[in-house]
Write a sequence for this structure.
């Protein structure tokens, strides 16, 4: 009897150890949209936090970007870089806030390792590039919520 119980305990420990653990670094997919600077961001289910680094995409060279976040859940950090980033020149982005006013999702700015919530009743949010010539924004989706969220911005030369 003791041998049977020991076997079952060891067997269950083996099964528990074999369950895959979800990788915290989720791969973001960005699909082409209707225009040259439009796209849809998709993050796998079960992903609690993901980062879309636009430096390695076609959006880096765009003056106006129109991104759609499909099934916005948990956290999406968007790292905005422009040609000014490579030239080490300051710039700003003007984010369309109309959608976020109608369908509120918390928006945060990450700058120099600090995170602050961005709240405004204005139709646009203007954020200047940081000391690395980037603008890093974090969007916080609802666990169960909207079908789509939009992140639209224009690049402004400082």
């Amino acid at each position: 009897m003791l041998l049977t119980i020991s076997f079952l305990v060891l067997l269950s420990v083996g099964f528990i150890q074999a369950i895959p653990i979800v990788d915290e670094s989720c791969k973001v997919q960005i699909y082409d949209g209707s225009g040259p600077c439009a796209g849809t961001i998709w993050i796998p289910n079960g992903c609690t936090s993901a980062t879309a680094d636009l430096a390695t995409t076609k959006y880096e060279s765009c003056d106006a970007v129109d991104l759609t976040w499909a099934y916005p859940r948990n956290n999406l950090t968007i790292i905005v870089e422009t040609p000014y980033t490579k030239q080490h020149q300051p710039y700003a982005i003007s984010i369309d806030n109309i959608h976020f006013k109608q369908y509120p999702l918390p928006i945060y700015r990450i700058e120099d390792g600090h995170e602050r919530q961005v709240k405004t009743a204005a139709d646009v949010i203007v954020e200047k590039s940081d000391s690395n010539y980037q603008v890093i924004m974090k969007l916080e989706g609802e666990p169960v919520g909207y079908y789509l969220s939009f992140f639209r911005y224009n690049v402004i030369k400082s």
